[in-house]
C-alpha cells in the first residue's frame, strides 16, 4: 500500500457537503440521501463532475493536494435494497464511482490527487442505534470495499460513524482488501459520539483492535468538536476534519426544512481555533451545508460560485 501524503503532513483539500449541495443548490432529489444513483445516467454523471471541479481549482490555488470522495456514502446493501439496487448493481456503481474520479484526475493536472472510496454507516449517521459487532460490520462492508479496491481506489474513508464496533469492522475489511483506511466519527454538541462515548475513548478503542491509517471527525460544527479535544497524545491521530456549516445539533438538522449554510468565513475561523490542538491536521473540507465557498474560505482561496 502506498503511503498517503497527508500522513507526512502534505496539506490536502477535500470536498464539501455533496448531498446537501446537490439537493439545495442544484434541485436534485436524492431519495434516502443517496447520491450514487446519479452515476446511472449521463446527466447525473455530468452533474457530479461539475460538483467536483471547483475543488480542483481550490487545491491549485492553495498549492495543496486534493482528495476526492466517491459519491457512495449510501452505496451499501441495506440502502441499496431500499432503492432497488442488487448486489451486482452496487458493485457496478461503486466501481464506476472510482473510475469517474480517476478520469477527473487524469485531466486535472494536480499532484497529488487521491481517489477515496467513501462509505457510510449501515444505520443512520446521526443516531447511535444498536451496538455493532465488528465481525458483522466486516461482512457487511466488505463488498463495497472490495469494489473500491478492484477499481483502483487509493484508500477507503468511512464517514459519519457513530460507534467503535462498526469502525473496527470497516478497518478489518479494508486491510483484507489491502487498502489504506481512514475512520471518521461524528460527535454531538458535547464532543461525544452519539452513543455517549468520548472521542478520545473511541479512538483508543479502535486503535487497540484494528488501527486505521488515521482518524477524522465529520458532520459536526468545529464548536461541537472542540469539547472533545481533551489533553493527550491521542489527538495526533486526527489528520482530517469535514465540518458542518451549521451550529445546529443533529436532531435540529434532521427537523430542519431549509438549508443552514452558516457563514463561510466564520466557519473557517472556527476551524482555525482547533488547529493548535490538532498537530497533524492536514486534510480539510466540509460536510452538510457546506459547498466550495466554505472550503475556499478554509484554504483562503478565491470563493467559488454555487451553480
TrEMBL record:
Keywords: Metal-binding, Methyltransferase, Transferase, Zinc. One of its GO terms (molecular function) is methyltransferase activity. InterPro entries: HCY_dom, HCY_dom_sf. It comes from the Bacteria. Its cofactor is Zn(2+). Residues 1-302 form the Hcy-binding domain. Gene3D superfamilies: Homocysteine-binding-like domain (3.20.20.330). This is Homocysteine S-methyltransferase. It comes from Virgisporangium aurantiacum.
